[in-house]
Amino acid sequence: xxxxxxxxxxxxxxxxxxxxxxxxxxxxxxxxxxxxxxxxxxxxxxxxxxxxxxxxxxxxxxxxxxxxxxxxxxxxxxxxxxxxxxxxxxxxxxxxxxxxxxxxxxxxxxxxxxxxxxxxxxxxxxxxxxxxxxxxxxxxxxxxxxxxxxxxxxxxxxxxxxxxxxxxxxxxxxxxxxxxxxxxxxxxxxxxxxxxxxxxxxxxxxxxxxxxxxxxxxxxxxxxxxxxxxxxxxxxxxxxxxxxxxxxxxxxxxxxxxxxxxxxxxxxxxxxxxxxxxxxxxxxxxxxxxxxxxxxxxxxxxxxxxxxxxxxxxxxxxxxxxxxxxxxxxxxxxxxxxxxxxxxxxxxxxxxxxxxxxxxxxxxxxxxxxxxxxxxxxxxxxxxxxxxxxxxxxxxxxxxxxxxxxxxxxxxxxxxxxxxxxxxxxxxxxxxxxxxxxxxxxxxxxxxxxxxxxxxxxxxxxxxxxxxxxxxxxxxxxxxxxxxxxxxxxxxxxxxxxxxxxxxxxxxxxxxxxxxxxxxxxxxxxxxxxxxxxxxxxxxxxxxxxxxxxxxxxxxxxxx
Length: 560
Fold this sequence. Notes:
Blueprint: H1 2-30, H2 35-42, E1 45-46, H3 54-73, E2 82-84, E3 96-98, H4 99-109, H5 114-141, H6 150-172, H7 177-191, H8 197-205, H9 214-244, E4 248-249, E5 262-263, H10 264-289, H11 295-298, H12 317-325, E6 330-333, E7 336-339, H13 340-368, E8 376-377, H14 384-403, H15 406-413, H16 417-456, E9 458-465, E10 471-476, H17 480-489, H18 517-532, H19 538-548
Parallel strand pairs: 4-8
Antiparallel strand pairs: 1-5, 2-3, 6-7, 9-10
EC number: 7.1.1.8
Protein name: Cytochrome bc1 complex cytochrome b subunit
InterPro entries: Cyt_b/b6_N (IPR005797), Cytb/b6-like_sf (IPR027387), Di-haem_cyt_TM (IPR016174)
């Protein structure tokens, strides 16, 4: 007994000394750093839902990219001077190649762990871009881009654009036959620009293609310029997430004025830390067992050769598909040839796509007249037009991605390449329209079914006999949480703008007083089209109004 008492006393003494030391350390740090002010941030709540971890997935993929990229930088030589290979890969022994390709083979076959790190780097790049893309889709379909998060949406789109450029630069560095073909296509895109195309090509390559400067220039952009911009924007993005607070799904107790979830420390950090370990583990597993970009199979780049069945990484596959689908259109003007078959798919299409992405939050706010702050996510079914537009865009992207491998698909399935190309051209026009109509109708049908369930109750599977001798099915009331979520989604959207009068003002216009006649009419028409799709049919609206007047078992009504 005496021994155990002494042990407890010693443990208490050690615990007290530890607390005193921690207190002194905290005071010393707080005198020099804003430690006390940061305590509130550690208790900042974050909603607990898997879809909110997509951003963390991109962040941890970026960390893997930085760590593996630093290791690769120690061994890679970004030179284009010709050398003779005498490394471990005997099939290429004695072959002339650039220093960049020679150092890539050296990393893959002679550096300890080099091939594993190189493949981890490539897989992490694919995961990084995929995570950003899916994260942007989540933000779009849930309306998380609305006020006050328009700037954060634009930062996310810019990050995706920079990630595309970073991925293409890294993909081109080995100077193998596949990446060299991609650089040749990039030069063709530059040359398609009217008047300035040849000047831009000479500036980038330093001479006639391929020159000796493009790999060192891409290397500088890949390890310094683009990563610096990406890390800076990621920092700003995270600061805005903390400042604006996180969006959350509608549920009892969740409003536009609060956030319900796990505190940052320790619960959310534990969840996020586990995800980081999973990202590291999965990329390491893929790097060890799933071969990717075996440059030794392609061989060094030579301008007189091209890879058969060459496919770029998925994130630029839509550009490749667009180039393959546009017919060979050319126009000669004053001795200059305009190559529409390259200019339209490779320059105009990406510019238009990113311009639409940047402008959409402001365009939707202008059309709907909704300038309120939104901190609760929309369910995709509650905004049928927006959901249908996004689904149509995704279908168009899928067609272009498939077109980027039309030669491989035609050879694999034994069909005509020309016939497949015409099918994809037709699908690029017809499929998005069809997807828009179908998705919009599905969203409206889901909303009507939910409101009908609220009005009639949930089926129990039991029948009962009425006093008249007939039979009817028993129903039980829908739960309070489901009722709350459905009714929040069916709350009226901002009222459609009234049709503009002859003077362009309109009676009671929401924000169109200063617009011209044609602009007011256009805005009114678009507002009716967009908002009408957000409302259920007349009979379902009556059911919703009736239910909104009933008590919901003590659950609080949502804030607008």
